[in-house]
Each structure stands twice: as structure tokens, then as C-alpha cells.
Amino acid sequence: MKNKLKVERAKLDMTQQHLADAVGVSRQTINSIEAGGYTPSTILALKISGIFKLSVNEIFLLEEGD
């Protein structure tokens, strides 16, 4: 699964730590999501999309084979 999390954070000048605090996870979790090493739960994806006021599909993109 690809994501545009880093791009969306940059648009808001938001650090990984700030996003992590806002959604209740560790900075390492945000880092791992951005790197593609961790797929967030539905609840976490919804919390993240709420922060950016975007749909989940605008942030997280399925790749062929997902």
C-alpha cells in the first residue's frame, strides 16, 4: 500500500511527532506507515484522514497485489 502521508504532512508543516500525538500513536508508527512498512488499521487510517480533512482513499493508495 502506498500513501501520501509525508506529502500531506509537509503541506501543513506538521512533524511526525505532531501527527502521532494527534492520532494517539508513536512517532515510530507514523514513520513506519510513511515508509510502507506498516499498514494502519481502519480506525487509525480514519483518524489520519480526519486530521488532513481528506478521504482515506486520498491518502492511502492500493497497489497491484494488495
Automatic annotation (TrEMBL):
Residues 5-59 form the HTH cro/C1-type domain. The lineage of its organism: Bacteria, Pseudomonadati, Bacteroidota, Sphingobacteriia, Sphingobacteriales. InterPro entries: Cro/C1-type_HTH (IPR001387), Lambda_DNA-bd_dom_sf (IPR010982). It comes from Mucilaginibacter gracilis. Keywords: DNA-binding. It holds the Pfam family HTH_3. GO terms for molecular function: DNA binding. This is Putative transcriptional regulator.
